[in-house]
Specification:
The structure is a single chain. With 255 residues, the protein is an alpha/beta fold. It has 2 domains: 110 residues, Rossmann fold, CATH 3.40.50.1000; 108 residues, Rossmann fold (3-Layer(aba) Sandwich), CATH 3.40.50. The chain is 33% helix and 20% strand. It contains 9 helices and 13 strands. Helix 3 runs parallel beside helix 4. The longest helix is centred in the N-terminal third of the chain and has 12 residues. One of its GO terms (cellular component) is cytoplasm. This is Haloacid dehalogenase. It comes from Chromobacterium vaccinii. GO terms for molecular function: phosphatase activity.
Length: 255
């Protein structure tokens, strides 16, 4: 596994997680992985902050990364819209950070539309989405519905922060349509967005969710490491390896 690109999930792996007693902190483990020649990338389904802010969050947790190594679900959606190349009347349900990313990467193709006038709807978490907006979206005809992800929550220590899943489901019901979900476990980010120095078959995805991270690896043809506090997690495809501390990656990958 020498020099294999390593793709880390964030929440539950490097953020919002305490390493078991007696194990090395994540920042030191990543330093050793870099020294061994592994290119590192960081992929999150979150679209509420940009890559610079993610890098700052990681630094606060003792993990030093370059913002250019970070990829968010907002970037994945923006890349897809830019790659499609056609002008769109866009309505966004989500954060200001999501709107800013879309505008920065493909603003020349986008015009911001009212809900009932949109031909494309991008959906992420929005706890303030109201019934009036849903009714207006239902009058839009048949807009393309694109979602960042279906995550119901993001772990943060002992707490779970709500994810976009509930918002996406409400919009799907209002439009009577199924969303194109571009975040994990869709491999689009790995195959088309991420700058990887090796084929996907040489890459290793490291995450805490069988249904998101392990499934992402399987869909991309990559290897998967499942990180859980107890070394086990229900549901989803089987990983190639299970670990319960980040430093257990070192004997696994640096040999």
């Amino acid at each position: 596994m020498a020099y294999a690109p390593l793709i880390f999930d964030l929440h539950g792996v490097l953020l919002g997680r305490r390493e078991p007693a007696g194990h090395q902190p994540a920042g030191e483990v990543l330093r050793q992985l870099r020294a061994a020649g592994h290119p590192l990338r960081f992929l999150t389904n979150s679209s509420s902050v940009g890559r610079q802010q993610v890098a700052k969050q990681l630094a606060s947790a003792g993990v030093e990364v370059d913002a250019g190594e970070v990829y968010t679900a907002a970037m994945t959606v923006a890349h897809y819209l830019r790659r499609c190349g056609r002008p769109r009347k866009l309505f966004v349900v989500g954060s200001d950070a999501l709107r800013a990313e879309l505008d920065a990467m493909c603003g020349g193709l986008l015009s911001w539309a009212a809900p009932e006038e949109a031909d494309t709807v991008v959906a992420s978490r929005d706890p303030e989405l109201d019934e009036e907006t849903l009714r207006r979206l239902a009058r839009a005809g048949q807009p393309q519905l694109i979602a960042t992800c279906r995550d119901l929550g993001f772990p943060d220590g002992d707490r779970i922060h709500p994810g976009p899943g509930q918002t996406v489901a409400r919009i799907e019901q209002a439009l009577d349509a199924q969303a194109l979900v571009l975040g994990k476990p869709n491999p689009y980010a790995l195959a088309s967005v991420m700058d990887l120095p090796a084929p996907l078959s040489d890459c290793v995805v490291i995450g805490d969710s069988p249904l998101q991270d392990v499934a992402l690896a399987r869909n991309a043809g990559a290897k998967a490491v499942l990180v859980t506090p107890g070394g086990d997690a229900p549901g989803g495809p089987e990983p190639d390896w299970r670990i319960d501390a980040i430093d257990q990656l070192l004997p696994l990958l640096c040999r």
